Amino acid sequence: MVVIMRPGTAQQEIDRLARQLQSQGLQVGITKGVDCSILGLVGDTTSVDLNKISTNEHVERVMRISEPYKRANRKFHPEDTAVTVGNAVIGAGKFSVIAGPCSVESEEQITAVAKDVKAAGAALLRGGAFKPRTSPYSFQGMGTPGLDLLLEAKAETGMPIVTELMSPKHCQLFEDKVDLIQIGARNMQNFDLLKEVGKLSKPILLKRGLSASYEEWIMAAEYIMSEGNENVILCERGIRTFETYTRNTLDVSAIPAVKKMSHLPVVVDPSHSAGMYWMVEPLALAAVAAGADGLIVEVHNDPANAKCDGQQSLTPEKFDALMRKISALVDLTGKELVK
Ligand code: PEP
Ligand code: MN
User: Fold this and answer.
1) How far is the CA of 132 from the centre of ligand 2 (A)?
2) Burial class (CB in 10 A: 0-12, 13-18, 19+), 97
3) Atom 3 (ligand 1): residue with closest C-alpha?
């Protein structure tokens, strides 16, 4: 971190600020220029409040040189992180596909879709039991009985299950029953929830907020990791832009950018990005080509009658066709598709 002092600041004010910063455990180097002095702060500046320093009337500007995240930072952890969920592995050269309906609707539905997506090559089963809906009048998910249906589908197929946790009050339930806990886009900055899942032993799939910057997204992962849970997978799911044609805009740049900033695996959700089933395949292929470590795709056996997100769900047949292309492309990128 660098602090630029106002031109003409008295030496005693510079020394006073330097002492203040030293008392926070930092080393402070003072460089005197012709007009102004610059303080160079060395040490762990992650907990230093930049805005607080800016309130000093003798300070012209404060700049961060190193990122405010440490545990998620590739600088301190150059190797890729791989997250293992049952037999599936995501990251460090291993590519896994998560597939299933937006919401669990019935035993028949979830078991049928689970069998189909497994046969097509998906490694994990998704299905929402607690749904974050924009309208309170829309289907809110089956709740705990939905979790039990996911467990039945798991028992039948052997696939680990992925589902969204919305409230800290369900942490223990999810710790007991769920293999990969999803934090949805709308909760990416629910810091209490992030801290609570940071105390769990289950891996976390952290979706990018609707308008979150890369740094805000990685800082959300840092919240989870700072509580001890280092098994975090980042999920790009499209962001809000000025374009209204698609539900969201898939930010393909996020894949190489975030993988440069962080060692955590990055998966892509082409379903919520596009919001239209016919766009899922091209976006999924783009994500693989750009270096994603996995995909999460909505699949429904009767999209026209789905209780949620039927318009963006693939039929099992379309998902099977997609998996064939994904498999060939994953091979080309030198990664291994885990089934
Ligand atoms: C979902 O995966 O069903 C979901 C609600 O996703 P997001 O949080 O990305 O909108
Ligand atoms: Mn959905």
Assistant:
1) 9
2) buried
3) 102
Q: In this model, does residue 244 exceed pLDDT 90?
A: yes
Quote the pTM value: 0.95
Whether 46 has a pLDDT exceeding 90, the answer reads no
* Per-residue confidence band for 47, with pLDDT thresholds at 50, 70 and 90: confident
The percentage of residues in the chain with a pLDDT greater than 90, rounded to a whole number, is: 97
CA distances from 2 to 8, 18, 29, 58, 59 (A): 18, 12, 10, 14, 11
Ligand 1 pocket member 209 (CB < 6 A): no
Vertex 135, ends 173 and 314: CA angle to 5°?
75
What is the SS3 assignment for 228-256?
CCCCEEEEECCECCCCCCCCCECCCCHHH
Contact 74, 263 (CB under 8 A): yes
Q: Do residues 313 and 101 lie in contact, with contact meaning Cβ atoms separated by under 8 Å?
A: yes
Does the CB atom of residue 272 touch ligand 1 within 6 A?
yes
Tokens representing 334 are: 């030198």
Q: Annotate 174-188 with DSSP letters as a single string.
A: HHHH-SEEEE-GGGT
Q: What is the pLDDT of residues 201-238, one digit of tens each?
A: 999 999 999 999 999 999 999 999 999 999 999 999 99
